[in-house]
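wait is this the right file?? whatever heres the structure
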């Protein structure tokens, strides 16, 4: 789909890319799923939107998006989307107002989220992966620094496979099965699950049987609103690698083909990796390997 982008948009990209490395941090978003996803981005209050707020990303492709100091927000992936030439459409999970570019709209639950508040100057970043709003895809977030020492976090287990019936989001059109797993808050709308009303503090809002299931499967991810102690991490990174379906490297794609062509119509960043489904040439940092071991063993 060809998009006409105004000159000011390209000028903004140029300004960001010309800033010294110490003033910028890059998000590298990789799709390791055997199907297309549509990542979305949303800036927090008081910070500008990234250069793109929604785009299509084919299987095996990666895109780099620069950010600015102090940026805060979230990144997620939508699935099962269809859009017309004007960018209007709908997604089965993670939809953001029925548009390709989310433009300030957040993800419709359930959706797995990468969340971050970036530090300015020497201040550290605070980041996490959250399934408080439910789950649609596995993901890992891995910080990259010049000296190392920062933790990967995420949820590599496919919660859709073991999602309790009362939390399931099912695609009925083609019998595709469970495509998302709701949070107890969304499923039942009770204050005790939503940490609202008299439960709006860490003393009264405690882990539920449902959030505990999420936590056991994904011990480093946020499972409910006050799950800070084991789920928030700090770092001073120059790049965050956000990988969806991280354990599916080398798996066959749905069309049984290999897309060896990078995205050409890319006005928001650049493709930095093309990972054919038949190869294992996407290198995993040691921290990601450790996270996989902790999750499955």
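ok assuming it is, sequence goes like this
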């Amino acid at each position: 789909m060809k998009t006409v982008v105004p000159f000011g948009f390209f000028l903004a990209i140029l300004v960001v890319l010309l800033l010294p490395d110490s003033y910028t941090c890059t998000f590298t978003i990789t799709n390791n799923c055997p199907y297309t996803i549509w990542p979305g981005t949303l800036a927090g209050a008081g910070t500008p939107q990234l250069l793109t707020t929604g785009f299509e990303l084919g299987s095996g492709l990666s895109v780099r998006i620069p950010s600015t100091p102090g940026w805060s927000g979230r990144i997620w992936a939508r699935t099962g989307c269809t859009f017309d030439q004007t960018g209007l459409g709908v997604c089965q999970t993670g939809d953001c107002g029925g548009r390709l570019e989310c433009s300030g709209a957040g993800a419709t639950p359930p959706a797995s989220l990468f969340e971050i508040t970036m530090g300015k100057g020497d201040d550290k970043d605070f980041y996490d992966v959250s399934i408080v709003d439910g789950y649609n895809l596995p993901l890992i977030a891995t910080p990259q620094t010049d000296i190392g020492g920062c933790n990967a976090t995420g949820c590599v287990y496919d919660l859709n496979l073991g999602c309790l019936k009362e939390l399931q989001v099912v695609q009925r059109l083609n019998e595709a099965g469970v495509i998302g797993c709701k949070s107890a808050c969304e499923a039942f709308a009770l204050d005790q699950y939503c940490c609202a009303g008299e439960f709006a503090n860490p003393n009264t809002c405690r882990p539920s049987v449902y959030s505990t299931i999420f936590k056991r499967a994904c011990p480093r991810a946020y499972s409910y609103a006050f799950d800070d102690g084991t789920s928030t991490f700090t770092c001073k990174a120059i790049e965050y690698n956000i990988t969806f379906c991280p354990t599916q490297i080398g798996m066959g794609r749905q069309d049984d083909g290999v897309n060896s062509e990078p995205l050409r119509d890319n006005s928001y960043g650049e493709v930095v990796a093309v990972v054919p489904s038949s190869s294992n040439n996407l290198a995993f940092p040691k921290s990601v390997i450790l996270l996989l071991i902790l999750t499955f063993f």
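DSSP finds five helices and 15 strands in the chain. so i think its the right one actually
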